[in-house]
Amino acid sequence: MSSDESESEYWDFSPEPTESQMESQMESNFMFITALDERVCPQCGPLDSQVFTASEAEINFPNATELFPGTVAANVHINCRCQLVSEPIDEGVMEPLGELSAEEY
Asked: Which of 16, 63, 86, 98 is placed for a possible disulfide with 28 were both Cys, Cβ 3.0 to 4.6 Å?
């Protein structure tokens, strides 16, 4: 084994995704999330909270890299801090909870 091979094995901490994880991710939508601060760039700001299908995300964000299952670094530009977070496709619509009283916490 060469030193290059042993180093790559040593530093590869990410487990291979299971088949069910890969299928689940392909059936997911991805929401674009910015840091929501004053440093968000004009390129990423308008994308915040937009939802993309897996195929749209793959086309629109070709430099994206997986951080861990379900969360992807968007890599829209150099030093991009934005992420694409998977959200399973659900037929139902989530209703807002509204404000909770102290007794409901």
From this structure: 86
